[in-house]
Amino acid sequence: MHISPNDNKQYRYLTLDNKLKVLLVHDINAPRSAAALSVKVGHFDDPADRQGMAHFLEHMLFLGTKKYPKVGEFQTFINHSGGSNNAWTGTENTTFFFEVSPHNFEEGLDRFGQFFTAPLFNEEAVDKERQAVDSEYKLKLKDDVRRLYQVHKETINPAHPFTKFSVGDLTTLDDRNNLSVREELLAFYHTHYSANLMGLVLLGPQSLDELENYAQTYFSHINNTDEPKPVITAPLVTEKENAQFIQIEPIKEVRKLTLSFSLPSVDEFYQQKPLSYLAHLLGNEGPGSLMSLLKSRGLINTLAAGGGINGSNFREYTVSLNLTPKGLNNVDAIVTSVFQYIALIEQQGLDAWRYKEKQSVLELAFRYQEKSRPLDTVSYLVMNLLHYAPEDVIYGDYMMTDYNEPLLRDLLGYLRPDNMRLVLVAQGQHYDKIAQWYHTPYSVTPFTAEQLSRWQQVKLDPELLLPEPNPYICEQLDPHALAPGSELPPQLIQDLPGFRLWYKQEHDFRVPKGVVYVAIDSPHAVNSPRNIVKTRLCVELLLEAINEKAYPAEIAGMSYNLYAHQGGVTLQLSGFSEKQPLLMKLILDRFANRTFNQDRFDNIKAQMLRNWRNAAQDKPISQLFNELTGLLQPNNPPYPALIEALESVEVDELPAFVEAMFAELHIDTFIYGNWLKDDALALAEILKNAFRVTDQLYGESQRPLVRLAQSGTRTYEIICNHADSAILMYYQSRQTTPRKIAIYTLANHLMSTTFFHELRTKQQLGYMVGTANLPLNRHPGLIFYIQSPVAGPQYLSEAIDDFANAFALVLLELNEAQWQASKQGLIAQISEPDTNLRSRAQRYWVSIGNKDNEFNQRSKVVHELTALSRADMVRFIVDIVKPRTSNRLVMHCKGQAHANLEPLDIGQPIESITEFQQQAR
Predict the structure, then answer these.
(1) How far apart are CA 180 and CA 123, in angstroms?
(2) What is the pTM of this model?
């Protein structure tokens, strides 16, 4: 097995007697143990009259087994063990995974293994979980991704299993002819859940022998029917479905054009990655690229190449473009340009040096790959286990073994007009069909002879160019030697008026990578919603101006981001550190020579307005979260306020605004990773010179938070254009002490599983049901939320209140061992060591922002958690959460399905946001 030199884990591959493929991963430093099992069954295998069966079965396996019959018990065990779990059903795979504290792993595997040997399919659970599947379907009725996916299904070869409805609902999973669906569920399970079609990955600090013993003990009993997976013979697309123009009406205001080419499966070529090579050229964003040309002509905003669905007998290859309004009127011209670029690649773009460049970038990524969370690691390895040769399971995603020009030419041969389906997603086009399940309007029209002829006989466009050799590919790949003091937390090495520099050389993760954060606080940037939107406009304009020149740096393993926040803006660089100063210089040069072009401004303003207006079509619960943070954080207005402020902003206001913004500022910089102190100081000088403005004032921005204090229950209703109702209850801590953080975090940890079990699994109030820990501006907060297709806000609020009233008793019924185990599970989560350089950088940066200058907030919270007694928690529930006495904010919206139900009748409505924000501060 080929392993990265930076990977200290040990691996063992084996096949059990029942033909189950197993990969064992010993990681001595793993904070948690994790397992993933994938079975080669998905919605392609659903019986024609039982669509959604594979998905329904995935849900059911969690709800009780012979040895552990109690519904919801697995979830409770995972929660108390400081872990997490999930599952997903795809087209040809269903995958289950979980992680827990290492000492709970064996019990977790005992419970998990039972899913695949002795599920109960309890009759009552079958009935209730069918409702959950139906809720999941209804939740996405207005989700454009699902709506477009359904049209995709209806416009390919009707004989291909991709056409099936993957989710299921009450009609496809109903009881029929006096027989429960349970019988068919059992038959489906026994037919498809066979060990020879499964892969299992176990990871933990346990030895390989110990992990092998677990695999044998808990998974060797899985039945093996020894039946091979049936081969799909129907092609995804036949001549009949090709050369078609498909128009689809979205709910959100989007304009997306996708050229979709149908290829056979290319899975066997994973070692050469020919399509990655083509995507590298077609999706290039540098000077002379297809994206650059179409953007300069005002036709598109973004371009992506190489996506598309794939399966055991097909691979779609797509070029997707987000269009401007002008682009929408020039679709044929855009398609012509795409074919011109494909012709350019065919004639001049097939070069061994280009392949080697891409290969070396992937090789660097593999050599210096950093650890991911145990759960993420097992999730991707289990897919590799089923798709790659045993020796390539670790390396397969990064391999590019040899440049194979005939193969590249063969695949390019599929990228032709008569093998294309052209999909336009935009409002107000021509539609004459309605898709099933999601009711999406669409139409299908064959290409005209004139279109086909124009696209087949393109001439090269002299403005289109292939990318130059990449100047950002790194050569110095050995990390710098460690300097004295590198093991210390970040140090403040410069503290000047308006400029602070924090620095740390990373001593633990020895990779040639670094992270640079530059937080620019400016009170002027955030002192009104109008200024907040101007700041965001400037951020987008600068990112736009940088993109073309900085694109090669992204290809070479560096990334940059610029984002607006409650204090101003932050610039972040990450990835290989050697060429980061070059990238920083490029960004600062672009900033210094900023220009405010009317066309680009108009385009970006229109994109921002569209995105924010589209947010009004998000699912109700997302809208409630957005309105909640907008209500409580004046520097973070909700979408409607941003839209109102942005509509009247003009380009000529921006130059003076930027000058004013930089007349009063404060910069916090953190340089971390594979950096020497002198180099960090040199970079700091570049930054200071770039932002030094004459007669500057120095001041950090205030980040106000609305305090609920003794307000009682306050309610705020928003109007959501959706059938479902939703509610969100928020409790806020007055203080930001480690003790308060401990109490609120533990309350969420203790309640989450019980809340989910009671209100979703038992009462079936909806698919999106949960609790959350939401700190705002360092103040801990506790949230309960439900989005429901079956009940209105009044009923949902009563259900949450009943839960809160009963929860103190639930706590009192825990025995001491359960109480301590729950606390330990949370402590393990909080104390979990950083996985990689990036996650550690993020943690240090949050500490700097929170003024945790000793970087020991976590240990203080753990200390407080250890000391918390059950009496403390019962007191918190009774004093803070109990509905009669609580100070809380209740956000709600009434769904169209519940228009005739009584309105929410609790607390005092917020009539004026301005008044509420002024009173509550």
Answers:
(1) 8
(2) 0.86
